[in-house]
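Async update (no meeting this week)

Hi team, since we skipped the sync, here's where things stand on the single-chain job. The sequence we agreed to prioritize is pasted below, unchanged from the tracker. I ran it this morning and attached the output directly underneath so nobody has to dig for it. Comments welcome in thread, and please keep replies under the output.
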Amino acid sequence: MESFKFHIIDDNPIFLDKAVTYLNSHKAVKSIGWSLSLNDFKEKNLNNEFDFILVDYSMPVQNGIEALKFIKERINSTKVFILSINKENLYKTDAENAGADGYICKDNFVDEIEYILKENS
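Output:
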Protein backbone atom coordinates (compact mmCIF):
# COMPACT_ATOMS: atom_id res chain seq x y z
CA MET A 1 0.00 0.00 0.00
CA GLU A 2 1.24 3.44 -0.91
CA SER A 3 1.80 5.90 1.93
CA PHE A 4 1.15 9.63 1.76
CA LYS A 5 2.43 12.81 3.36
CA PHE A 6 -0.16 15.33 4.56
CA HIS A 7 -0.07 18.88 5.86
CA ILE A 8 -3.03 20.73 7.40
CA ILE A 9 -3.32 24.51 7.65
CA ASP A 10 -6.14 25.39 10.05
CA ASP A 11 -6.54 27.98 12.80
CA ASN A 12 -8.88 25.80 14.88
CA PRO A 13 -6.69 23.84 17.33
CA ILE A 14 -9.52 21.47 18.31
CA PHE A 15 -10.19 20.41 14.71
CA LEU A 16 -6.48 20.32 13.98
CA ASP A 17 -5.82 17.99 16.92
CA LYS A 18 -8.61 15.60 15.87
CA ALA A 19 -7.54 15.61 12.21
CA VAL A 20 -3.86 15.04 13.02
CA THR A 21 -4.74 12.26 15.47
CA TYR A 22 -6.88 10.51 12.86
CA LEU A 23 -4.31 10.84 10.08
CA ASN A 24 -1.48 9.66 12.35
CA SER A 25 -3.45 6.48 13.06
CA HIS A 26 -4.09 5.70 9.38
CA LYS A 27 -1.88 3.02 7.83
CA ALA A 28 -1.78 4.84 4.45
CA VAL A 29 -0.41 8.04 5.99
CA LYS A 30 3.37 8.27 6.20
CA SER A 31 3.59 11.68 7.89
CA ILE A 32 1.45 14.61 8.91
CA GLY A 33 2.47 18.21 9.44
CA TRP A 34 0.36 21.12 10.54
CA SER A 35 0.31 24.90 10.67
CA LEU A 36 -2.06 27.38 12.30
CA SER A 37 -1.86 29.84 9.38
CA LEU A 38 -0.33 30.37 5.97
CA ASN A 39 2.38 32.50 7.59
CA ASP A 40 3.14 29.62 9.96
CA PHE A 41 3.39 27.30 6.92
CA LYS A 42 5.74 29.73 5.15
CA GLU A 43 7.97 30.06 8.24
CA LYS A 44 8.42 26.30 8.45
CA ASN A 45 9.73 26.36 4.86
CA LEU A 46 8.07 23.07 4.04
CA ASN A 47 8.11 23.46 0.27
CA ASN A 48 7.32 20.39 -1.81
CA GLU A 49 7.30 17.72 0.89
CA PHE A 50 3.63 16.73 0.85
CA ASP A 51 1.27 14.75 -1.33
CA PHE A 52 -1.76 16.56 0.09
CA ILE A 53 -2.24 19.91 1.79
CA LEU A 54 -5.58 20.59 3.48
CA VAL A 55 -6.37 24.28 3.99
CA ASP A 56 -9.18 25.77 6.09
CA TYR A 57 -11.44 28.06 4.05
CA SER A 58 -12.00 30.60 6.84
CA MET A 59 -8.86 31.83 8.57
CA PRO A 60 -7.85 35.27 9.81
CA VAL A 61 -5.20 37.30 7.96
CA GLN A 62 -5.13 35.11 4.82
CA ASN A 63 -8.10 32.90 4.03
CA GLY A 64 -7.98 29.43 2.51
CA ILE A 65 -8.43 30.66 -1.05
CA GLU A 66 -5.44 32.98 -0.70
CA ALA A 67 -3.43 30.14 0.83
CA LEU A 68 -4.50 27.80 -1.98
CA LYS A 69 -3.30 30.25 -4.63
CA PHE A 70 0.01 30.80 -2.83
CA ILE A 71 0.66 27.06 -2.54
CA LYS A 72 -0.39 26.24 -6.12
CA GLU A 73 1.91 28.94 -7.51
CA ARG A 74 4.90 27.44 -5.72
CA ILE A 75 4.29 23.71 -5.42
CA ASN A 76 1.81 22.76 -8.12
CA SER A 77 2.54 19.03 -7.84
CA THR A 78 0.90 18.88 -4.39
CA LYS A 79 -2.85 18.33 -4.29
CA VAL A 80 -4.57 21.03 -2.25
CA PHE A 81 -7.99 20.54 -0.69
CA ILE A 82 -10.10 23.22 0.97
CA LEU A 83 -11.56 22.36 4.39
CA SER A 84 -14.73 23.98 5.67
CA ILE A 85 -17.68 23.56 7.99
CA ASN A 86 -19.85 25.05 5.24
CA LYS A 87 -21.82 22.57 3.16
CA GLU A 88 -23.20 25.15 0.74
CA ASN A 89 -22.22 24.71 -2.92
CA LEU A 90 -21.12 28.36 -3.04
CA TYR A 91 -18.01 27.56 -0.99
CA LYS A 92 -17.24 24.40 -2.96
CA THR A 93 -17.60 26.29 -6.25
CA ASP A 94 -15.37 29.09 -4.95
CA ALA A 95 -12.69 26.54 -4.02
CA GLU A 96 -12.92 24.76 -7.38
CA ASN A 97 -12.76 28.04 -9.31
CA ALA A 98 -9.62 28.98 -7.36
CA GLY A 99 -7.91 25.74 -8.38
CA ALA A 100 -8.54 23.43 -5.42
CA ASP A 101 -8.21 19.72 -6.08
CA GLY A 102 -11.21 19.12 -3.86
CA TYR A 103 -13.43 20.36 -1.05
CA ILE A 104 -13.73 18.59 2.30
CA CYS A 105 -16.59 19.31 4.66
CA LYS A 106 -15.19 19.00 8.18
CA ASP A 107 -18.32 17.11 9.30
CA ASN A 108 -17.38 14.35 6.82
CA PHE A 109 -13.61 14.51 7.32
CA VAL A 110 -12.96 10.80 7.87
CA ASP A 111 -15.11 9.68 4.92
CA GLU A 112 -13.58 12.32 2.64
CA ILE A 113 -10.03 11.32 3.60
CA GLU A 114 -10.84 7.65 2.98
CA TYR A 115 -12.14 8.58 -0.48
CA ILE A 116 -9.06 10.69 -1.28
CA LEU A 117 -6.70 7.91 -0.21
CA LYS A 118 -8.62 5.30 -2.19
CA GLU A 119 -8.68 7.47 -5.32
CA ASN A 120 -4.95 8.18 -5.12
CA SER A 121 -3.67 4.68 -4.29
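Quick observations from my side:
The CA atoms of residues 43 and 102 lie 25 Å apart.
The beta strands are 4-9, 29-35, 52-56, 79-84, 102-105.
Reply here if anything looks off.
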